[in-house]
Amino acid sequence: RKLEKDSHELWTGKVYKHLKNPNMFKFTEDLSNRQRNVSKGTNTCEYILLHHTGVIWEGNIKVLLGETWTKASVHFLVMQDGRSYKLADPKWITWHAWQSSWEGRIDMNRYCLGIEIEWPWFTEVQRKKAIELTEHLMAVYRIPKERVIRHKDVAPWRKVDPDESFFRLKGGITNWKLWRFLLKPKEQWNV
Known about the structure:
Layout: H1 2-12, E1 29-30, E2 38-39, E3 47-52, H2 59-64, E4 76-78, E5 84-86, E6 93-94, E7 101-102, E8 105-106, E9 112-117, H3 124-141, E10 148-150, H4 151-154, H5 176-181
Parallel strand pairs: 1-5, 3-9, 3-10, 4-9
Antiparallel strand pairs: 2-6, 4-5, 7-8
């Protein structure tokens, strides 16, 4: 019952009342109306799951919208040049984690907002935009930084993304745990 109520509030926008400006993140384009690869049910939006693509290619958008032969999908994509796309409504269960488990749960697609980061190398503008998006989602969905996780965390037997070089800090230090510790939602919650 409580989950149904929380989900209803989440999708009717009532949950956003804790934010001063829930629309603070601006996407280059919202393409979610074109998404073809989603599952029935509602995503609980309890985690943010970070990924990287295997290639730099404008076709990544089509692949992640289900407009090609693949069955992959994700909620958000951040390109190397900093363009960011909303590819699915956050309430939809997208197909980005596949066989996965974390904290006693399986099929993490049902619990995670997926962010795909274009790779095989990362740019500073892209890192900045991905951090901005992550912090925005943390604020909107009240996701604590401990629940920002990597694809390699939920499927270590088959995945290695995102590449550690994404988590480079000032001074050239690469440290996932410190990177996550430094995340700060853009607006404080009124709790």
